[in-house]
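To the team - S-adenosylmethionine complex, inputs and output below.
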Amino acid sequence: MAKQNIFDNETFFENYQKLREREVNANNLFEIPERLKMLPDVKGLKILDLGCGSGEECVEYIKMGAKAVVGVDISEKMLEVAKEKNSDPAITYLCMPMEDIGSIEGEFDLAVSSLALHYIEDFKGVVKNVGRLLKKGGEFIFSQEHPMVTCHSGTAGSRWTRDENGNKIHVNISNYGKEGERETSWFVDNVKIYHRMFSTVINDLAEGGFAVERLAEPLPSDELLEKYPEYYDLFHKPDFLLVKARKV
Ligand SMILES: C[S@@+](CC[C@H](N)C(=O)[O-])C[C@H]1O[C@@H](n2cnc3c(N)ncnc32)[C@H](O)[C@@H]1O
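Output:
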């Protein structure tokens, strides 16, 4: 099955880098703080990072005391940045689709993945392989675009219903129950992501031998809303889903 590698598209890559360089972005405000809250003490742990991108997290885990990190990503361009800016003797970067991690040897204490799993068609297969690579009791902590967002992507119609003054009244949800590929435009056309219902995410984890311990759908605080009122949108639909699951 051919896997998409959109981050190696020049236009996509440049625009994504610019987005992440902005100080105020949803990753920095919501995804990263919530994921850090879910992390155990990583001191001495061997960590697998799926869809590690340019390696910011990998190097952070080493700074936090992790023994070793293996970062896996399908994009050569993202890994070039990782090797240039975020290298460390304790980090190994592997350029490969995460669907193929079954070929990795060794055992890990913790698996993490940040905003990469919605690019994966075979989530169940990845979960199974993560289960094989993790020690018993090891945690799998990941974030993905929220199912309320992935369902709408690429489908016809506006994301919002607005009043006569253009104010957002409510979010439009469509085809939530139709799982699978969505083709959307983000910096470039034909970006593929995969929609899964919330229940599928949880059931795939359970069938893969994981117990879900915590879920999060980050929301803005009052303080943050005062500075960035546009993030009130998250009360209508969360953008991110974060999951902490343990191999039982
Ligand atoms: C939104 S970026 C997130 C990068 C990093 N985890 C972070 O939070 O900064 C998604 C990453 O997933 C990677 N990715 C997409 N599909 C993949 C696949 N099948 N296997 C491995 N990596 C993949 C992309 O190349 C990209 O680096």
